[in-house]
TrEMBL record, chain A:
Keywords: DNA replication. One of its GO terms (biological process) is DNA replication. GO terms for cellular component: chromatin; chromosome, centromeric region; Ctf18 RFC-like complex. This is Sister chromatid cohesion protein DCC1. The gene is LOC107270753. The keyword Ribonucleoprotein does not apply. It comes from the Eukaryota. Belongs to the DCC1 family. InterPro entries: Dcc1.
From TrEMBL, chain B:
GO terms for biological process: DNA replication; mitotic sister chromatid cohesion. Its main location: nucleus. The lineage of its organism: Eukaryota, Metazoa, Ecdysozoa, Arthropoda, Hexapoda. It is found in: Nucleus. Pfam families: Ctf8 (PF09696). Keywords: Cell cycle, DNA replication, DNA-binding, Nucleus. One of its GO terms (molecular function) is DNA binding. Belongs to the CTF8 family. The keyword RNA-binding does not apply. It comes from Cephus cinctus (Wheat stem sawfly). Signal peptide: none annotated. One of its GO terms (cellular component) is Ctf18 RFC-like complex. This is Chromosome transmission fidelity protein 8 homolog isoform X1. PANTHER family: CHROMOSOME TRANSMISSION FIDELITY FACTOR 8, CTF8, CHROMOSOME TRANSMISSION FIDELITY FACTOR 8 HOMOLOG (S. CEREVISIAE).
Length: 399, 115
């Protein structure tokens, strides 16, 4: 490769000579020729990384917003924008990529005479970061917040303050975008107490919610007659304000009724309330006779609320125990299952052979992505069969 | 740990990505600095033509469905980095178009000899 060895500057004549040699008619070419050349600075690539961009990332950069790589040393890093998380993977290109600044494209190279322009090549690259939009990695959130979970005012003194997480610490350790993290805080009912983000322990939530529900009877409220201020005033010794606010928002919705001064009244969400009370029962006893369980559940819920079998979805399963010839309600919370799709499905089919779509949805909806919804997941990982017109999903391989 | 990637919407350049099959190397193993790689022409019909040594390559100008951002690591000497932010990158350029040369190069010398 003669010209590459050539260190002196190429002239227009050199270029024309080569064209003649190559049997290319100069008249067929645009007037501007760009000579690609290395400079002493080329290929100092150690501080340069190439990052693939999808439309969202491109827009973010064009608007001048920041991206951030996020992850501890032992974790594979992710890339976050304000509201999305991406898996990143270093990919190798089989071809060479040459990056050239100030390059002129076909439409910019028209000229009546031959003009020689030099372009410095920044370097030749063989790797870049590939990006894939992914779910935020939130399973770690519950793990890191567990030790500092709020158990009640009386336990606060003994709390190890080193286990507390403020926003900054949370953001730097959890691989999720800001918006996704904020949403997760609401979803998991993580509450900001004096600047630190705290889980509410299950026992405390059970105690507090029971106290709140007891007030319905005490005040002879209708179900859609719940007074937030009165509820807080009655319990403020036991439930600090931010915790109360979090719990109340999680379990109630605004009712159509208002107080005489126009402020809203509330009602407890029947499904959420019943579901939590079922969890309390199941925590005490994970395996129950169906009839006994439904009876205990009904007694435990406030009057006029009606526990329904469907409320157990994602919390417990109703199965037929052939050795005891009885229907049973067994505790089966989706949060304890693996995040790995294959493992999750094998865990599911181990406990129950055939699932209807309604039954299985709460257990797999956490694994869906923009491109893979529940139906697509089931098509890919399970086998579908029809019994009496009802679709059942079972393991892909096996009986 | 967070490593920020900063973007300045005005200070960013448009670069082109030229994709070549195989690798570019000097024939005598010399270090590649201050050396010509080749002559880049556009034919009147827009076809990119690259002549490297005695090879002619015909290419294609295509928009990239996934553009490539060029990130430059901020050196530690600038002082604003600390344990919490051990590194920082700046987007210095984005390549949105690439010129890909995927056909086998034609050897000039063949023409030359047959002439």
């Amino acid at each position: 490769m003669e010209s590459v060895r050539d260190t002196c500057l190429r002239t227009a004549e050199d270029v024309l000579d080569t064209l003649q040699l190559a049997n290319i008619d100069e008249a067929d070419l645009n007037g501007i020729t760009q000579i690609l050349q290395f400079t002493p600075n080329s290929n100092k690539n150690s501080d340069i990384k190439l990052l693939e961009l999808d439309t969202h990332l491109l827009n973010v950069l064009n608007e001048g917003d920041c991206l951030s790589f996020c992850g501890e040393k032992h974790e594979p890093a992710v890339l976050c924008t304000k509201d999305r998380t991406y898996d990143i993977k270093e990919a190798e290109t089989s071809n060479s990529w040459m990056l050239v600044p100030n390059f002129k494209f076909a439409e910019e190279t028209q000229s009546n005479e031959r003009i020689i322009e030099r372009r410095d090549v920044k370097g030749i690259y063989h790797t870049y970061f590939e990006v894939h939009n992914c779910k935020p990695k939130l399973s770690k959130l519950l793990v890191v917040l567990e030790p500092s979970s709020f158990k009640g005012m009386e336990y606060e003194q003994n709390l190890d303050r080193g286990t507390l997480y403020d926003w900054h610490r949370l953001k730097s350790e959890i691989q999720a975008s800001e918006e996704e993290l904020k949403r997760a805080l609401t979803d998991y009912m993580i509450i900001n107490i004096d600047g630190y983000f705290r889980l509410i322990s299950f026992e405390y939530e059970a105690r507090a919610l029971t106290l709140m529900l007891d007030l319905i009877d005490e005040n002879s409220w209708e179900l859609d007659d719940i007074d937030k201020d009165v509820t807080y005033e009655s319990l403020k010794e036991l439930i600090p304000w931010p915790v109360f606010e979090g719990l109340f928002n999680a379990y109630t919705e605004v009712s159509e009724k208002t107080k005489s001064d126009g402020t809203s009244l509330y009602r407890y969400n029947e499904e959420k309330t019943c579901k939590f009370l079922a969890k309390v029962l199941l925590a005490a006893c994970p395996k129950n006779d169906y009839k006994e369980f439904m009876e205990a559940w009904r007694i435990g819920t406030p009057e006029n609320m009606e526990p329904k079998e469907s409320y157990l979805s994602g919390v417990a399963l109703i199965i037929y125990n052939s050795s005891k010839t009885r229907k049973e309600v067994i505790s089966f919370p989706s949060v304890n299952l693996s995040d790995n799709i294959n493992t999750r499905f094998s865990e599911l089919f181990k406990v129950k052979d055939k699932w209807t779509i309604d039954e299985i949805t709460p257990y797999v909806s956490g694994l869906t992505t923009d491109k893979l919804n529940v139906n697509a997941l089931l098509t890919k990982y399970t086998r579908c069969s029809k019994v009496n017109g009802i679709k059942y999903y079972s393991t892909k391989h096996g009986k | 740990m967070l490593v920020r990637v900063k973007s300045n919407p005005d200070g960013k350049e448009d670069w082109v990505l030229i994709e070549l099959q195989g690798d570019v190397d000097t024939s005598n193993g010399e270090h590649m600095k201050s050396q010509n790689i080749g002559d880049f022409h556009f034919a009147k019909d827009g076809t990119p033509i690259l002549i490297i040594g005695y090879h002619i390559l015909y290419g294609k100008d295509t928009p990239m469905s996934k553009p490539i951002a060029v990130l430059k690591k901020k050196s530690n000497s600038e002082g604003c980095l600390n344990e919490e932010h051990p590194a920082e990158y700046t987007v210095i350029a984005i390549a949105k178009r690439k010129i890909i040369f995927k056909t086998r190069p034609k050897r000039i010398v063949n023409h030359f000899i047959t002439q």
